[in-house]
Write a structure and sequence with these properties.
This is Helix-turn-helix transcriptional regulator. This protein is mainly alpha-helical. Helices cover 61% and strands 8% of the residues.
């Protein structure tokens, strides 16, 4: 499972969704889904724009987290 840290990063930088949308041109709906961690897929271009705007790496926005339920299923 991927954990998106966009809301934390934006909070630390005191940015609103509307600020990031205006500066990057990313669709507000897309950014809202990333912010609330409900996005199912993201274009690489979107991630690239976020990294450039926020001055961070992909690994700072996304983190791979092992899911306990999926690990349990594999071990069954």
């Amino acid at each position: 499972m991927l954990k998106c840290h966009l809301s934390r990063i934006m909070g630390e930088k005191r940015l609103k969704i509307s600020d990031v949308c205006a500066a990057t041109g990313i669709n507000r709906g897309t950014l809202s889904r990333l912010y609330h961690e409900t996005a199912n897929r993201v274009d690489l271009e979107t991630i690239d724009m976020l990294c450039e705007f926020l001055e961070c790496n992909v690994g700072e926005i996304y983190e791979h987290v092992h899911s306990a339920s999926k690990t349990a299923e594999v071990n069954v």
